[in-house]
Write a structure and sequence with these properties.
Strand content: under 5%
Oligomer: single chain
Number of strands: 0
Order of helices and strands: HHHHHH
Number of helices: 6
Amino acid sequence: MKDRMERRLSYLISGETFAIIMFPIIYVVSFFAYQDLKLHFLFSFWLSFFLLEFILLQGSLYWRVKLKQLKKESSIILPPRVVRTLQVLEKVNGGLLLLTLLFFVVDFLIWYPNVPFKELLITVYIFIFAFLEYVNYFYIQLSYDNISNLKFLIKTRRLKEAYIKKDIRRGSSW
């Protein structure tokens, strides 16, 4: 059981880390391949991109801490200081999401009447991805990529509570 959990946590770590590394590479390649795109002029793009990377980094570190805890103490219960950090990050992420929405308005006002809709649309997709990652980590698990999760989904017909939310709830009772 412990080995299976360790493999699962390692898989989650590698997936998040891969995304953290690949997204900037994809941006750089697209910057040169599609020079007509003016993404780099949009404040909302940079904040959305930062937010996505920041949330993915939190996820990667979260799974690393869980793996370390499992190896060290054969338990995935997090120390209180980690739980407090997660509580702060939940609020910081929420604030950054709201700030990003404000920057969409700012970009629209700056660029009006020549609003770069193609670039704004790409930025909206990145923002939605960041928002979904935030929800997936801090509220409701949206990713169901193994048999156990799929069985739960089929059996209960409801989404699981996010792991970080469980850890925060568990840690808040100390």
